[in-house]
Protein 1
Amino acid sequence: MDSTFGIIFSAVFISNIILAQFLGLCSFLGVSKNFKNAFGMSAAVSFVMLLATILCYGVYHGLLVPYHLEYLQTLVFILAIAALVQLVEMFMKKSMPALHKAMGVYLPLITTNCAILGIALINVTKNYSLIDSIANSIGTSLGYTMAILLFSCIRERLDEDQMPPCMRVLPIALITASFMSIALMGMSGIH
Amino acid sequence: MLINELTKGIIKDNPLFVQLLGTCPSLATTSSLTNALGMGAAFTFVLIGSNIVISLIRKLIPDQVHIPCYIVVIASLVTVVEMIMNAYVPALYAALGVFVPLIVVNCIVLGRAEAFACKNGVVASILDAIGMGIGYTLALTIIASFRELLGSGKLLGHQILGAPFTPALIFILPAGAFITMGCVFAMVAYLRQRGAAHNG
Amino acid sequence: MSKEDSSFITRLTLTLLIICAVCVGLVAYAHSATKDVIAARAAADVKAAYKQVFPELGELSKEKAPGGLITDIQCSKKGGKANGYIYTVEPTGYGGKLTIMVGIDQKNKLTGIKILKLSETPGLGMKSTEPTWQAQFKGKPLKDELVVTKQDPTKDNDVRAITAATITSRAVVKGLNEVRAHYMKTYANGKG
């Protein structure tokens, strides 16, 4: 499965960014307490991830490779992402106020979301072409959205259940995430 | 008291168990104790460096651009650590993979810069960084010990649990990381609740 | 914009610029200090891997790789005469591509394999990097296609699977069979 579809499928199910690669966990645990927040966060992450992937691809292959500065990638990518997030926020505030209202609060948090930088770095490490990078980022954001939405639905119900006080909130959430991860293990090996 | 800056990060304000920061590497790099210690060392080094630099330049940076400046400083330190690891401990570098560059977006490093180093002197900042580094490494070590022992019967690559024990591979896999962390967090919560009940 | 505003913006820009310049300078210095060590180590690693899969290593020369799974072929020569070939092949395993190096001698036998890069499940597929599993390939004749078996191997072309990691085992053997097909066609003793 080296095809573009293969990359998307594997990013959603087999190497799911949260449940198998552990990237973006802070936001996964932080904003998944209710469905509405989870939805806003995943929309913002998906949007920025796609833009960031294209931007980082351009910067890496357009600037760093020709001048043999590949070793600056971490530094340049994080700056590019931080600048991108700022620009997106300013642009949205001005021309898309409705969207800004829905996603705005999550945007500043995204600069330090390791999923975005992680995907940019993984695309470079795996030597993906532009199309493959975009496919990978789309698949990854689908996987992120799937995991965080399902998880928030479960957590909304968990709040009302009885359990030992020490298991409340985070421990039980982590154990729930573990079962979700086991479910996805069944997907691996499909090639 | 300067000594408090050192000790607070280890237990009272432990970055992982109490502040819940830096969760990503704590799951991804704890499949073996060696990886956890390596990650802890790399992290501590970056944190000490960033705290020193930021407490030194804190008065020179205008408030409006302090975040980009911190990010540049941290990213440079991380890149330097990455190169040193690639040159001298390649096996560890390969095992930690993308999580070495991702120290850049580790909330603890930026968090300490924002909350501590930009307000305090160099010595206090160094002590703070060492304390937080030890606390984080300790937390990673606890999670990794459980996972490696239960998942492969080994610690630091040495066989500890012998024949009658069958390693439960699930603990090395991602699902086991979530379970272990959930149980460790529950344990921490239990101890804190009991402590609170005793004091109150 | 008032004059104070513009001087303030200049100050912001200058601060950012200076910090970036100093940091990049530092990183560039670290890069120049470590790049030779990294390059030397990478070269030594490749050399050691060649030596491991093909102990009788002589002078190496690059051959044309046919594409597909096979990415590199090196011909080892001793005294101007070929004494074996080292293939690099990249089949797909459980969690992505595996990079395997394979040595073949003039008797059409495998001299050893080494898995250079893999992203398999740790603890399961990762066992394929253990020497005990890789050792069984040493001396295997290439007369017939290799076959993965879950029982103890009985025939020459049987390969014992890794317990609970059949997909990884199959991927390795698939890569080896691709190498075998190309080798038998192009270099097998008498033709090469």
Protein 2
Amino acid sequence: MQDKNSSKVYDVIIVGSGAGGGMATKVLSEAGLKVAVVEAGPHFDPADPAQRTQMKWPYESPRRGAGSQRPFGDFDSAYGGWEIDGEPYTRVPGTKFDWFRSHMLGGRTNHWGRISLRFGPNDFKHKSIDGLGDDWPIGYDDVKPYYNKVDKLIGVFGTKENLPNEPDGYFLPPPKPRLHELYFIKGSKKVGVPVIPARMSMLTKKINNDRGVCYYCGQCSRGCSVYADFSAGTCLIFPAQKAGGQIDLYVNSVVREVITNDEGKATGVTYISKDDRKEYSLKGKVVVLAASACSSARILLNSKSKQHPNGLGNSSGMVGKYLHDSTGASRAAFIPALMNRDIYNEDGVGGMHIYTPWWLDNRKLDFPRGYHLEMWGGMGMPSYGFGFNVNDLNKHIGEKVGGYGEQLRADVKKFYGSVVGISGRGECIAREDNYCELDPEVVDEFGIPVLRFNYTWTEHERLQAKHMHNTFEEILDAMGGKILGEKPGKEDDYGLAAPGRIIHEVGTTRMGNDPNKSVTNAYEQLHDANNVFVVDGGPFVSQADKNPTWTILALAWRTSDYIVDQLKKRNI
Amino acid sequence: MDRRDTIKSMLVGSIAGGLILSACQPDADEKKKSGETSDGLYGRTEKEKAHDLKVMGETFFNEHEVATIAVLCDLILPASASAGSAVDAGVPEFISFIARDIQSHQLPLRGGMMWLDHEATKRFTQAFILCSIDQQKQILDTIAYPEDAAPESAQGVKFFTLMRNLVLTGYYTSRMGIDDLGYQGNTPNTWDGVPDTVLAKHGLAYEEEWLAKCIDQEKRAVVAEWDAEGNLVN
């Protein structure tokens, strides 16, 4: 093994450059610390013409944007996917888990949905409410100041609604709803489901002079070349570099383990360079893991030493445990009133302009924990798959399905923008017996032991998905929709997506006050090594019915402030 | 040269067929302008570029299959008064690529075309592409309408549905197809709500209270500031 920069000792080594790693890079470098960022994938800048996919037409891809190379289509800005050549993972037979990884600067923040929700007061203390899972060792008031700072630094549109568990923030004004979204609002109102403007991190208004304003191409999943949406590279790491931060970026560098000394404290990391397939080491006073919940757990489990025989931070055996993803289910409908639409540009922001936060009382329901609703539809840019089953919808209006010739052109135009859908995203109860662990036999192409997953749903999640589908039907029906497909039944887990599929996996290094039942303390600091921190979704005690990114960002900022403070006080 | 003559010539021999094929295609500059050729400038990683090049260098369909695809393309989407046909939009080339890129299409397409030729030979004693347009349509009429099709045509229905899907998707993701559809987006703009005429047509209106919270596009370039309570002040 070779020492890279053998004389150099970094103040902090940050592993991963997504939401958590990006925030740590910014805050720690701005505090004057010497920072190394170690990223498994290449450098990525959505403004770089060689990497840019935004504003491309489908015919600029020979496969017209099909998902045969990138799972969410050729223009999606995620380098990786559900399976990565040479970097497998395994599952315990009879269990399911799908793991989406994106190896590039900025990680999954380059393509994510930008739904930017704060956790509410109840979300941190849910055991106190329904007796399930565990409470966080912190509460909303601990995180609130950081949510405020994140809002102002990064920008999020939304509206003040004064809802008890959906805290308001420092919002930019939202865009107006699209036509199909007005149908949703009307239909939902009829059945008593509230709808409010979405809360998403695109700049509808200027937030500073370094970033552009949204120009409504609807392509946030491709990354924004004017930096008008949030990604960790464009909004955190690049500005930190520009501000003169002492940041060394190590890209194409796969961290194998954290190295510890005789006292069990971290002294650095080892990594394999994808460029020459050799192993190197870096020295640092503090190590911040932000490789994503499961990847950070994997690094810890692989960091075995005399002092940490079960892996670093794992004296409790809790590393990898309590893995949980959001629940998810979806349904679509054909809206006859949206046939033969006037065509105009309604690309809008990349995703929904409206949404429904959880609105019911679980005490009156047969499942715990809520879900929110995301709505979709509209006259989007054609891509591979557009025009498939071109006139199947004719069966809903008494016309002939199939055919060929001139008529098909009319059918395409008749149904363009007439299909809408709803997705539910809910909270799963975190359980110790849902976990990832090291596979005892399998290594990846770098010789690093890989993860083996063990994840099952319970009736809590299944009944929640059942309820989601009832809600979908009520709303779609109230919109005058012809609901498509069959309603999934018990044999199909009520349409519940496989674990991992919502890509909100968290909990693998959960925080807590009891070192026997948690991996980190309330500052995301390992109980077992006080100079190692985890700032991705790993420390989440519970995932709430929200999306995790805004909370990852707020907690990473809070932890970074703590690191600066502890270094000053020479406590670490 | 009319379509049937072209196709018959293609079968004469590979050299002549090749010449005719290229003579009937728009020239390279024209294709580049219409975006039908990929120059790799769509944000590929090195690995992806290598994959594209590899796939582009491969051949799957034989000459007869290529000719059959072209015939089917224009039966499925002939030219209209205002837009070119599927062949004009380069759909056969797209289908040729996608069958190499998504290999699960290969068997159903190849086998389906053989099914079609078998059917054509049985009914009209010649391959599908050599049949008259009327004869071709007679065959298609038995497989193009899933609800009416006879059970013994089920395999043909499945093939034709796949072919129709690929033709439609290839066409409407081409420049020509996007223009025919009338898609207005993929261009910088300022979204300021549904046009009034459209709202009126649908009997909908924005709620005043909701609208008051939305972005005033006149102020989008003004750097946001908030008061201590988080209210936007500008």
Protein 3
Amino acid sequence: MSLLKVENLSYSYNKGTSMEKNAVKNASFEIEQGDFIGIIGHTGSGKSTLIQHFNGLIRPDSGRIYINGEDIWASKERLHQIRFIVGLVFQYPEYQLFEETVYKDIAFGPGNMGLGKEEIDARVREAADFAGVHPEYLESSPFDLSGGQKRRAAIAGVIAMRPQILVLDEPAAGLDPHGRDRIFERIKNYHKKTGSTVVLVSHSMEDIARYAKKVLVMNQGGIETFDTVENVFSKAERLLEIGLEVPMITRVFMALRARGIDVPPDVYTVDYGRSEILKLLEREGIKHA
Amino acid sequence: MLKDITIGQYYPGKSILHRLDPRMKMIMTFVFIVALFAASNKIGLAVGAFIVIIAYACAKIPLKFLMKSLKPIIPLVLITSVLNLFFLTEGNALFRFWIITVTTEGISFAVVMSVRIICLIAGTSLLTYTTTPIALTDAIEQLLAPLKKIKLPVHELAMMMTIAMRFIPTLIDETDKIMNAQKARGADLETGGPVKRVKALVPILIPLFVSAFRRADELAIAMECRCYQGGEGRTRMNHLKMKLIDLWAGLFILACLAGVVCINIFL
């Protein structure tokens, strides 16, 4: 049984008006426990709409969503519980901060779950640690923090619910490269330590290629492919066709192949590319220093 | 659900009412309101209701739109009718039951009040349906221009209104986003008693205020960067011009007011 199963899901905005827009079209896929999934697609391809279905914020026009084999729209009480199983971090989550202290804000989610005080305390400290919120900031006002710190505090607010699936929508948007790396390293570390499922939405191929195991490619509301990173990037031409960027290194290897040089098509990280180049040089009998 | 708000919603069209000068439309709306309250009997109000119906037909506003703007005032209409029905106890008693006395006067007054409120909302909504918010604030600015003499900052007030209207959709969007973010953290906005529900608004209102202030700050800086200094010596892109048709429209509404006053006196 898969952790999350989406079946023939369709949803459109502004139904019944001239501005009707089919945001998600007939999407079906399954996510297993412990997966690290990247969702990519150009702006307006339906990524954000799709993930809001995962925890029942949007009710699909047709199709079903199952969590642990259970239809999330089966009962209203259950739907409330689903919000704690699927932790959703929105774009620019720092705009949701509202409490007097960072500690209280992180405790908002666990508090809504009806947990005891000690349990909440343990979860807040654990989540703050995962998200990289320094303990000394816990007692300060969230509005006094810097942009990157606010972002991490907001992510901690969702991690504190200990969701089985953590869904992050562009968690690094608007941060500088250092801030980006820090957030992604934290998420990767969280995934490794807790073994929980992570879904990362991004339009940056570099980030997806570096962290995700499987990639779901969206195009015009439909699912283009859902496959391992290697298989997805081996079809790099198609990705470029639907308006997506591919990592720099993939472009280099595409150019090499176009010139008739025998290199594999699925190169998406610099390390992998380096070893392939070295292999190639060896085959050609050229020694490197 | 927030997307259903229709206040100030413009319905694009090319009818006479859409093309009238916004200043004239505002004056007409004002005269219309005066006429509605001046009308003291059923015939006068029937004239008012008739004008509203004709105007809506002219502007080709779908009935669905009108219903949407009338929906929020249904409770108000019901409460006023019920109060009038039961507490106006003078006149011919139609029937008595326990302490309740329903009189023919009570019924007629309840009907008059309901029609008046509905016409009032429908008539004023028509102004915003047929006029873009920008044209509306331009009209307000020019109509109030004489008040500059007594040092009233008319331009600044109009600018504030323009900005406020411009930000309504933005803030609605923002509220939607924040609500979803808090719901994702298990915030329960739909169940519980009144106290619990009000408390549940805190996680939404605080981020909303913070973001509104941030936007205001950014906008102020952007305006200053473009050397905005207020109304002094500012020229405008679109000049409003009264045409012959505006004059006729103005005369028409004045005739209606005169008619209502005559009906009051002679009938």
Protein 4
Amino acid sequence: MRILVVEDDPVLVDGLAAGLGLAGFTVDTVTTCEDASAALEAQTYDTVVLDLMLPDGSGLDVLSSLRRRKNATPVVLLTARDQVADRVAGLDAGADDYVGKPFDLDELAARIRAAARRGAGRASGVLEWRGVVLDPARQAASLHGGPLTLTRREFGVLRALMERPGSPVSRAALEETLYGWQEEVESNAVEVHIHKLRSKLGAGFIKTVRGLGYRLAEESP
Amino acid sequence: MNSISSRLLTVLIASTGLVWLLAVIWIYASTQAEVERVLDARLMEAARMVNSLQAERRIELALADGGASPLTQLAIEDDSYERQLSCQIWSLDGRLVGRSEHAPDDRLTDAGTGFSERTVDGEAWRVYSIENPDLGVRVMVGDSRHVRDRLVGDVVKGLLIPAGLILPFLAGVIWISVRRGMSPLNGIAKAISSRAASDLSPLRNENLPREIAPAVYALNDLFSRVNEAREREKSFTAFAAHELKTPLAGLKTQAQVALASRDGAIHANALRQISAGVDRSDRLVRQLLDLSAVEASDGVLTMETGRPMKIIERVMKEMPQAPGRMKMLSRADDQDIVALFDPTLLTLALRNLVENALNHSPRDRTVTVRLAEAAGRVDIIVEDHGPGISESELPRVTERFFRGRARSSTGSGLGLAIVKEAITRMGGTLVLKNRQPHGVSALLSIPVPEAS
């Protein structure tokens, strides 16, 4: 799951990149409103974590212009002023959730997952498909009730596919989900992860849709 | 009661009443004098008339038979003032020769020709008598004091009764006028008391009476100043919350990363970040304390004549940053330059200014400090080799918590605000200019002592 963190404090940005990375997110960071708007136009994110006071303006302006462009990416606001009026203003401007500083990293991660889930139109946090259960909160997976060990990247690929079962996901989209700006992507990285997943889940679990990418196989006929 | 309308009402009614009372007293006195004069003249005339009638023998006197037949022709037929005049004619040897119908039996006076007063049978009389030696009689005409007083009393009563009727009406008219006159004040009081505590919008000020307009203008002025102060405080609080809580959020996040990660490199990085975050928070707290120290100096400035060079040297010595990064460009006689300043404030201003310059300069460039004398002031110039300040941000960099795009990672947005506050309080100025090709030149001007 790829998220954008908009925050200008260097210590906090560093911590968020490291901490949310550990929680299984692919994290991009920017420090200004301008960079945030540019990143949001260039890239699709599952969730945006947005600070309100930025060097070149207010995060609320970024949020408003995002919503004006009919971009429904879920937004979680970070703010120091944890007062009702501020929360109302943030939520009314189109935010999906609101976290007051200082926050708990696990709580922030959970709220990001929840916002992304609601953004994708799902109520449950757990993904299920043909006996495979993914729990993004715990980064845990199981197959028919038994344990299933996945690497972080494999988990990411499977999750991206299970979030939209039945519809194909392109190789480029999978790469974007898995790798942030700073990370080098090997040309066949996605194929390698798919191959490993097939060997763990069964060859028929993930189908290749020629020219479009990959999708999960329908229930066995 | 301390109310303008009731005070006005009391004063107006009391003074109107007092005017009426004085008028009544004056009319009473003058009427009394006039009545005395007229009645005295009438007494005299009546006495003379009786005397002359006697002399011409138009009336017969019972001189011989001892006063059995009284005279009756002088009674006036008037209801209230009946028996006003009484006439007695006495022979000079002391016999009552004749009298009018209601005249008392006792002698009205013992005096000779002229006016006199006497009490007969418990009644006071004013009497005029004429001695007529030719006839051997004394004519006395008198009127009752009581009747005279009643006459005057009736005149005064005629004045007091309408007054008594008019006064309540007058009070009503005064009351209504006062209420009318006070209605703009009541309107303003109502407008103020009915608004919410947070409503600091100005009061309507069209069609105001001239007497109230200054008060309304003053109130509106106060409202706008309170509003400004509140807005300033609000934004200060918002910025302070952000600047204090963001580093805390950073510390907490890094601590949680350090706890969660088993990767040595991530662990070490998190701890380094925590250490940097603590340094930054420390600086922020120090600057907030500096700012409150500057503000606390309000009104208790200790301006003294001293050598700015001493302050500059001390600030440079105490700087925790690498000492090699600061250079003092001083000439031999700079030590002798004197200025008028508050040592604490100048130290705070200079320390924050130099710190700001160091934070924005590359590590391998020096920050230079110079001292210069100009007409009526002393300049301290701090120059750095940082990225400079964009022209659009120049006017705003001295605002509290303003951090431009070229922010340093350790800045809080308070440094230049402290410098500006401190220097303004000492009557000096801070001017920031971009240098070519890059960097900022900060000019700190402080006043010189007068008459030196």
